[in-house]
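Next comes a concrete protein, fold included:
___
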Amino acid sequence: PPGSVDGRFTASWAATDNIGIARYQWRTRQRPDGTSSALTTLTTRGGTFRLGVGTWELDVRARDAVGNWSGWRSVRVIVPRDDRAFSFSAGTTRRTSSVAYRGTLTTTSVKDAEISLTTEDGDGFFLVGRSGPAYGRLQVTVDGVSTIVDTGFYQGQRAAAYHDRVLLFSTRFTAGAHTVTITNLATSGRPTISIDGLD
């Protein structure tokens, strides 16, 4: 969903059978222990979805022309919290952008400004933001272990243009409570960092 500006995403599926596929069913379930949604039956090979914040399973199965159903196939979908749910400890500026996730970016240029949060039941952390030539380094600390991310780079190279809805950092961990802190390192000449969504 951070790949889209409004959280909607499109999923497609296909199946083969020696008799022929007649229809598909899908359902969603919020992790870790949500109840599955009602089944939706259709003949098309895809759909557009908009789910609430959190981690979801999208399950799909196929039925052939004589009524045999396949097993369920699942894909995990992560919908981050919008940046407006957070503020830096200093220098927070909200910016609007038609190409940002849900239309806003949260930035700071203040050295050591940070966002801290505690996860309660997740099994991973994802940070979405903007990269570009004027953006600098940030530090992500998860349970005391730090990683430095240079948002002035995009896909391993120094950014020559601005890129929105970029997955800046991700990690997996065991389910349970974890502490995450994002700190602005205020890189010389490019002190600004920009957050678009996280969870």
User: Anything to note?
Assistant: Residues 132 and 162 are 4 Å apart (CA to CA). The chain has a mean pLDDT of 90. The radius of gyration is 20 Å. The longest strand covers residues 54-64.
